[in-house]
Amino acid sequence: MMDATQLALEQRSAEEQRHHSKGQFLWVWAALLVMTGIEVYLTYQNMEPIRMLSILMGLSLLKAGLIIGYFMHLKFEISAMKWVTMSSLVFCLAMMLVFLPDAYRILHLGVGITTVPK
Amino acid sequence: MPVFPTPPGEAGNAEFVNVTKTAPQFAATFFGLTGMHMLHVTLGVVYLGVVALRRWFIPVLLGLWLVAWLGTPAYSPFHYGAHVLLVAAVVISIILWLKPKVYDSSDVEVAGLYWHFVDLVWMFIFPLVYLMSTRIV
Questions:
Q1: Which of A12, A14, B17, B121 has its CA 20 to 30 Å from the CA of residue B68?
Q2: Res B14 pLDDT > 90
Q3: Res B43: pLDDT
Q4: Is A89 at the interface with chain B, CB within 8 A?
């Protein structure tokens, strides 16, 4: 059994071996800022909503990938960790699509209340 | 006047007639999303503050609570909303009293994961709520 000091030293050396350089995080941050700038710029271009939505969501997915990969360190994890986290994320997103039929019902069929009180 | 829970029968349905025209759906969605996000960012600041400063963060938090509470007018939602900081100060006091510790690299990692998860959510809320609702003519 290791005591707390040994454990802390071990953690510190493991952390140093990972070579998280500050410059890399600054580059990622700059890339996120640039993509946010592009998103805001697009807002002023008066394009069709569906087209703008597609571009915005594409850029947001890129930004999300950078954040998960670098800021949340997933890029530096073992592949089992990548598979477990990303497959559960996809599963959760797929479960949220369950609500789409309800949204369709509200848009096209109304809220379904037929009895109007006098 | 809407009542909760809704009484059964026709009287209960009355408030839902023309609900899509009468309910302030944009405002409800906008402030629901941004307000909940603000709450999570606030709790993230508290989390990072405790990991960085431990019990020394409690007076900082109480100071922020007083500034936010007394510095906002009573009609502002932030006036009573500031009490989230007071509740957080009480909760972290209890936690640090029950389990005082020097936070290690894992604690910093987990606090960072929470912070960046909230950040990740903002990547989608910002374009959807602010940019998609903009109409420039």
A1: B121
A2: no
A3: 95
A4: no
Q: What is the Cα Rg of chain A in Å?
A: 23
Q: Are B65 and B84 in contact (CB under 8 A)?
A: no
Is residue B18 less than 8 Å (CB to CB) from chain A?
Answer: no
For the question of whether the overall pTM of this predicted structure is more than 0.90, the answer is: no
**In which domain, by residue range, is B53 found?**
30-131
Which residues of B are less than 8 Å from A12 in CB distance? 105
Rounded to whole angstroms, how far apart are CA atoms A60 and A71? 15
Domain that holds residue A54: 4-109
Cβ neighbours for B113, distance < 8 A, ≥ 6 positions apart? A72
- SS3 category, B51: helix
What does pLDDT average to over chain B?
87
Please check whether residue A69 lies inside any domain of the structure: yes
The dihedrals phi and psi of B3, each to the nearest 5 degrees, come to -115, 155
**Is residue B1, in this structure, part of any structural domain at all?**
no
State the complex-level ipTM.
0.74
